[in-house]
Amino acid sequence: MSTISMRNTALGAVGLAVVGSLALTGCKNGNEELPAQPAASTPGSAPATSGAPASPSTGSSGAPAGAAGTAKSGQAFKIGEAAEIPYDYGDFKGSRLALTVTAIEQGTAADLEGLKLGDKANGKVPYYIRYTVKNIGTTDMSYASVGHVRGLLGDGGEAQSLAVIGKFEKCKDESMPKGFTNGQTQTSCAIALAPIVTMASGAVDAAQPGLLCYSAAKAAVVQLTKTLATEAGPHGIRVNAVAPGWIRTPMTGRHSPEVQEQTEAAMVRMSPLRRVGEPEDIARAVLYLASDASSFMTGQILRPNGGVSMPW
After folding, report:
1. Which of 44, 115, 208, 244 is 20 to 30 A from 279, comparing alpha carbons?
2. CA–CA separation, 300 vs 202, rounded Å?
């Protein structure tokens, strides 16, 4: 569900000063929920971080995701989709690039220990934003510096970025190589710092036949979250979980049209809000927990489930 939101294509002294913003909403392991009835007995899941439907754009434009041509301000792209942008700085005026985020990987606080960041990294873990840069113009961009992608948090602010002088093996960010001409591609990486958010499930609040292993695994995620919060808290690191309700995704929508209609109708009746969940509902919950808006929350389970379950 993570997207690039093209907020600005202005260029700065270090190349692409703001290429885009990346929402750190990796719902990779499921925005799941309990089925409404035995006919839909397997919980759904949110799309993976690779190829997931675009989450709400953080910009103001209503441009469709992945539209052809130059990326527009506010346009959202799925992971794996290329954003075409102009690069018009220094000796490379008139150049054009296609930037594609290929993955977001969560690191650990231990990754940063050798960097001696001090208070700068308090309460944060690194997220590695891996992307490719392809020269789609006619200019030779040998040794050009193309950076960097920045993480976007739920409050609209940018995640704390981290520039490393020298080599950092876990996230290499290098200039374009010699001979970086049309058609050439270079891989790169940017680091964003944010709190830890795990993905649980509403299956931890209710029992359902056929979900023994799934429910037990998600209950383990909840306990992992709480225990890790107590261990990481003294280091300023917050750890929270999201336990989604029934979310309309390809996984929950894989049944026949008749069964799907019955299942959704049952879930609508169970919810005080009289609707089922959408991937965007989970994205907003994750973004909230990853932002400073939740700075006094840790070890908590956030339940965007439409009120279907209301545990103490």
Report:
1. 208
2. 14
Amino acid at 224: L
| Residues 120 and 190 reside in one and the same domain | yes
Per-residue tokens: 116: 């001696």
Alpha carbons 95 and 187: distance in angstroms, whole number: 18
DSSP state of 288: H
**How high is the pLDDT of residue 302?**
94
Residues 271 and 214 in one domain: yes
What is the structure's pLDDT at 161? 66
Residue 14, phi then psi, degrees to nearest 5: -110, 30
Residues of the chain with pLDDT under 70: 1-69, 118-123, 147-163, 165-166
Contact 95, 141 (CB under 8 A): yes
The span from the CA of 88 to the CA of 10, in Å, is 9
Q: Judge whether 241 and 198 are in contact, CB under 8 Å.
A: yes
Give the active site residues.
214
If asked whether residues 90 and 237 sit together in one domain, one would say no
- Mapping DSSP onto H, E and C, the string for 46-61 reads CCCCCCCCCCCCCCCC
Model-wide pTM > 0.70: no
SS3 at position 112: helix
State the residue range of the domain holding 155.
3-34+45-194
232: CATH: 3.40.50.720
Phi/psi of residue 162, nearest 5 degrees: -140, 120
